[in-house]
Design goal:
Largest sheet: 5 strands, antiparallel
Strand content: 15-25%
Strand order of the largest sheet: 2-6-5-4-7
Number of helices: 12
CATH class of the largest domain: Alpha Beta
Number of strands: 11
Number of domains: 2
Radius of gyration: 24 Å
Distance between the termini: 41 Å
Length: 343
């Protein structure tokens, strides 16, 4: 998949860029203008790379402000762009990104960093139009994060999607001491040649508990294949389904436990547990799909761990023996032994 590292404009900054595009069009500047949702500031272009590299993104040590400033052209690249006021902090951040990529042996375009936001491609500027005379809408944004994007061709041109960030990486590492969360996030950083996550949400949650519960990870992954995207129809979120599968593998069959897990998710998401609803609200709030799904995975793993610990299924090093009832120490019911089904 094609990757690049960049900054994502805030909603207010993006709105100002959209106004600027409209003013250029009104002035007679023709171009293939980018959809506002695709606007970004590139720090380093990686190009084709087989995996997610968000683990190497440097954090923004001290938030800083960028101010919209000026319009220009790259004639050879056939691009019309918006600039920002000179910022030593931005230059340092771009340098840090490139140093991290170099240290990780990840190739990138070595051209000097020229901060800009592409507004449109193949521009045609009438001779009578002076770009310096285009009135700039006032806009500032605070830079607090570095994002990893993937680019893919859509029906109406290229689509740029966030698949990771430095803040997300730091957040889950700081917030969780869980080996299960760490493993799930490592797996979510693996991608197919088509650029899709190699582990869907259900697989990422359920599979990390499989080994400790005495099950085969590969079989668990295959069993969870069609629970992605809410059973591929926008129904119950795959991360929730994966957490319920994990409870079952741990030998928990008390419906009160599963109901409590679902209640916690509902309470945290205004009553919603369906994938389509969760993604819709996330998009309305300006969120990207991949970070949202990863957050759901971390949340559901956390609830599953809490439930397992409450039922005595978790030891410091992992799960107890699968199916062992820590409270009553009962053997498997006879019907399970006869049928060969594990509880």
């Amino acid at each position: 998949m094609r990757l690049f590292v960049g900054l994502r404009p805030s909603e207010e900054f993006r709105a100002a860029l959209s106004v600027l595009q409209s003013r250029l069009q009104a002035a007679g500047v023709a171009a293939r203008y980018l959809d506002p949702s695709n606007l970004h500031l590139t720090l380093a272009f990686i190009g084709e790379w087989p995996g997610n590299v968000s683990a190497v993104l440097p954090p923004v040590e001290q938030p800083f402000t960028l101010t919209l400033s000026g319009v220009g052209l790259f004639p050879e690249a056939k691009v019309i762009w918006a600039g920002v006021q000179k910022s030593p902090a931005l230059d340092r951040l771009a340098q840090q990104v490139r140093e991290k990529l170099t240290a990780a042996d990840i190739p990138f375009d070595p051209k000097p960093f020229v901060p800009h936001i592409t507004l449109g491609r193949k521009p045609v500027v009438p001779e009578a139009v002076d770009l310096s005379g285009i009135m700039m809408p006032p806009a500032e944004m605070t830079v607090e994060d570095v994002f990893l994007y993937k680019s893919e061709r859509g029906e109406n041109g290229m689509v740029y999607s966030v698949i990771g960030s430095s803040t997300e990486k730091q957040h889950w590492r700081k917030q969780s001491m869980s080996k299960y969360v760490d493993l799930a996030m490592e797996r979510r950083n693996q991608f197919t040649p088509e650029g899709k996550p190699a582990w869907n949400c259900c697989q990422a949650v359920a599979s990390v508990f499989a080994k400790d519960a005495g099950y085969d990870e590969d079989s668990c992954m295959k069993a969870a294949t069609f629970f992605r995207g809410g059973m591929q129809m926008g129904s119950v979120c795959g991360a929730i389904t994966g957490s319920l599968i994990a409870l079952g593998m741990a030998g928990i069959d008390d419906p009160q436990v599963s109901n409590e897990l679902i209640r916690k998710v509902r309470d945290h998401h205004n009553g919603m547990i369906h994938c389509a609803d969760l993604l819709r609200i996330n998009a309305q709030n300006g969120g990207e799909k991949m970070p949202h799904c990863n957050a759901m995975i971390r949340e559901c793993i956390g609830y599953a761990e809490e439930a397992m610990r409450a039922k005595g299924k978790l030891k410091p090093e992992g799960l107890n023996e699968p199916g062992l009832d820590m409270e009553a120490d009962k053997p498997y019911p006879q019907q399970f032994l006869q049928s060969g089904i594990r509880r």
